[in-house]
């Protein structure tokens, strides 16, 4: 992944590139953002292919078929334009190394991971074949390992290049070490060709080498067509899967459904990959977060255009941040304006970036408005003595009181009001006064909301709308950013503090993990529920009554036996002032009476070990 050059920064359809993920013989792949804020992998085809009418027709056909492919083990196609000057295809972006990268870095996969890989590949091919596609290029580089399993990418794209001017009529498209004998011989292909590739990929994952790899590409192709597969070192459990797939006769190979029947179900809640691969996944996620903070270069100047055109181009730059805490600086630089010149208003950041969960964790909700007056409400004074890390109460001279909450759980009973703020639908609930909210683009289950419980002046929904509108605009201008130290737990996604393996060992197999609020995560496991939250506390009254001291691997913490099945653990992560500190609270709630603190304390220690030391 590398930063964009100016000539790469222009929009691709409605997608705005953020970084270059890679280049190949068919084109370039960009990390980009979709109009709805999702991250996408956009493959822009080499311009040379665009001059081939046959390629365009095949590409359009394969794109139409690819749109029908769904399932947990594929990266779904989001959009495409076969008629563009440089045809392109956008798929959902998933973070994770390719199988090739994982094996090169961490070695062959262990048996449980190989089983999970085989199930994922078979399920993905079942979906591809259901859409009447043949992948044609299933290889380790087209299998991504993500936190919840493998993903097969680039299905059907190789078909579009066959017979084009750039590849030559009759050219073989694919990877020699992983293609089927019939593909190597340029014969008619059936879905069974992909099953041969699946077998070869499994052998590589189990041993680090392909079953037919020779010293040259020509030797490899000969081996694929004529030689028996080299299966020494392949575990027996993998060999009994791979060997039938590698039959020279396509009719002798199993179908994806038959392979899935043989493999059986995958155990729930287990981390699919060894720790070294999990580290690679985390590293790639960190690279994406870093890329989202890179300044986007200005594309080369185009012929003069109206300022409205510039505004449209800026609107196309909506950036979805998965786990980044920085906002791209979009303020004017250079010399002071000359006498009589009107200073430009601050440019507003894309709404998807502004309201990303990671950006909002860096926001002090009581510092967003500053001294700005709000239409219809005047100057609103925040209550800075409140203890909500993600919320703030405001009051004006007329006694109107409103509360802003960043990243609360979205109200299931809210309905769309018909209005929009920065392109996002406004949701309304009037059960008590008026609550208006907009969902966070990267997690629609969370929302930015304003509550007006019918203050003394004005209509509650009018007041809430005025404050919500002003608040979003100020956030887009970069207001309210906290200066948090590295060891602050407020800036961290709470669900990242404890990995699934630790939770499995301490409590039980993880079945679900939910961000309940920006600073609260809930794990549902086979052994009970764990809730971890970060909030402000008043040091003079901390901890609450009933807590006793406990050593958390050198950190002074406190625990409390709530009941025979529940235990709470807390520690002060960061003293701030004599009136405010930052504390982490964790509660385990089980179903079986016993020693609940024996389950809660190891989870608390794991969270402390993940955070930078205070």
Write up this protein.
The protein is α+β, with helices and mostly antiparallel strands and 614 residues long. It has 3 domains: 57-72 and 95-287, Transferase(Phosphotransferase), domain 1, CATH 1.10.510; 346-476, no CATH class; 494-610, Protein Transport Mog1p, Chain A, CATH 3.40.1000. The protein contains 17 helices and 21 strands. It has helices at 47-50, 53-66, 99-106, 111-130, 157-161, 181-184, 192-207, 217-226, 236-245, 256-263, 275-291, 307-315, 351-354, 357-361, 460-476, 500-506, 597-610; strands spanning 16-23, 27-33, 39-45, 77-81, 88-92, 143-146, 149-152, 381-382, 391-395, 401-409, 415-421, 424-429, 434-440, 443-452, 510-517, 520-525, 528-537, 548-552, 555-563, 566-577, 580-589. The protein is globular and about 85 Å long.
> What is the global morphology?
globular
Round the mean pLDDT to the nearest integer and report it.
83
- Could you please say which CATH topology of the largest domain applies here? Transferase(Phosphotransferase), domain 1
Helix content: 25-40%
Low-confidence stretches: 161-172, 303-345
* CATH homologous superfamily designation of the largest domain: Transferase(Phosphotransferase) domain 1
Q: Which class of the largest domain in CATH terms? A: Mainly Alpha
**Per CATH, which architecture of the largest domain?**
Orthogonal Bundle
How would you sum up the major sheet?
A: 7 strands, antiparallel
* Main structural class: alpha+beta
Give the CA-CA distance, first to last residue: 32 Å
Strand order across the largest sheet: 8-9-10-14-13-12-11
Strand element count: 21
Strand content: 15-25%
Gyration radius, rounded:
28 Å
Count of the domains: 3
- Number of helices in the DSSP assignment: 17
């Amino acid at each position: 992944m590398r930063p964009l050059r100016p000539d790469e920064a222009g929009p691709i359809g409605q997608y705005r590139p953020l970084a270059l993920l890679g280049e190949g013989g068919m084109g370039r792949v960009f990390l980009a953002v979709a109009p709805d804020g999702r991250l996408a992998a956009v493959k822009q085809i080499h311009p040379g292919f665009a001059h081939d009418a046959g390629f365009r027709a095949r590409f359009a056909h394969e794109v139409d078929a690819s749109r029908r492919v769904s399932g947990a083990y594929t990266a779904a196609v989001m959009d495409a334009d076969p008629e563009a000057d440089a045809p392109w295809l956008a798929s959902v972006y998933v973070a994770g190394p390719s199988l090739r990268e994982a094996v090169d870095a961490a070695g062959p996969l262990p048996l449980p991971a190989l089983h999970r890989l085989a199930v994922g590949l078979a399920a993905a091919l079942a979906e591809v074949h259901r859409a009447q596609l043949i992948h044609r290029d299933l290889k380790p580089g087209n299998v991504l390992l993500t936190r919840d399993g493998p993903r097969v990418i680039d299905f059907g794209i190789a078909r579009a290049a066959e017979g084009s001017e750039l590849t030559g009529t009759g050219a073989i498209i694919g990877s020699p070490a992983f293609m089927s004998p019939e593909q190597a011989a340029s014969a008619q292909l059936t879905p069974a060709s992909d099953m041969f590739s699946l077998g070869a990929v499994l052998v590589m994952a189990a041993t680090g080498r392909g079953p037919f790899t020779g010293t040259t590409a020509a030797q490899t192709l000969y081996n694929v067509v004529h030689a028996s597969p080299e299966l020494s070192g392949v575990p027996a459990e993998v060999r009994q899967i791979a060997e039938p797939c590698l039959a020279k006769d396509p009719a002798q190979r199993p179908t994806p459904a038959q392979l899935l029947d043989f493999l059986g179900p995958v155990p729930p809640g287990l981390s699919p990959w060894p720790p070294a691969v999990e580290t690679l996944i985390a590293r790639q996620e960190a690279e994406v977060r870093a890329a989202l903070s890179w300044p986007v270069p200005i594309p080369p100047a185009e012929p003069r255009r109206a300022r409205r055109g510039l505004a449209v181009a800026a609107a196309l730059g909506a950036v979805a941040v998965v786990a980044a805490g920085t906002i791209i600086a979009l303020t004017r630089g250079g010399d002071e304006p000359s006498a009589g010149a009107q200073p430009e208003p601050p440019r507003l950041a894309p709404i998807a970036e502004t309201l990303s969960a990671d950006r909002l964790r860096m926001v002090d909700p009581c510092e967003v408005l500053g001294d700005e007056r709000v239409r219809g409400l005047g100057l609103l004074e925040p209550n800075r003595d409140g203890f909500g890390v993600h919320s703030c109460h405001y009051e004006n001279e007329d006694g109107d009181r409103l509360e802003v909450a960043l990243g609360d759980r979205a109200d299931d009973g809210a309905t769309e009001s018909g209005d929009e703020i920065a392109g996002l639908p406004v949701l309304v609930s009037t059960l008590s006064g008026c609550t208006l909210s907009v969902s966070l683009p990267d997690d629609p289950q969370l929302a930015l909301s304003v509550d007006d419980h019918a203050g003394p002046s004005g209509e509650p929904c009018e007041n809430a709308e005025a404050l919500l509108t002003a608040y979003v605009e100020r956030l887009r201008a970069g207001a309210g950013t906290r200066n948090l130290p590295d060891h602050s737990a407020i800036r961290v996604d709470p669900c990242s503090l404890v990995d699934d393996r630790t939770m499995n060992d301490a409590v039980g197999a993880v079945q679900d993990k939910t961000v309940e609020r920006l600073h609260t995560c809930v794990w549902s496991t086979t052994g009970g529920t764990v809730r971890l939250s970060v909030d402000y506390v008043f040091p003079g009254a901390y901890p609450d009554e009933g807590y006793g001291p406990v050593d958390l691997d050198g950190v002074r913490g406190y625990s409390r036996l709530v009941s025979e099945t529940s235990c709470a653990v807390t520690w002060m992560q960061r003293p701030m002032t004599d009136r405010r500190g930052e504390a982490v609270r964790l509660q385990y709630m089980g179903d079986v009476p016993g020693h609940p603190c024996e389950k809660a304390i190891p989870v608390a220690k794991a969270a402390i070990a993940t955070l930078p030391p205070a």
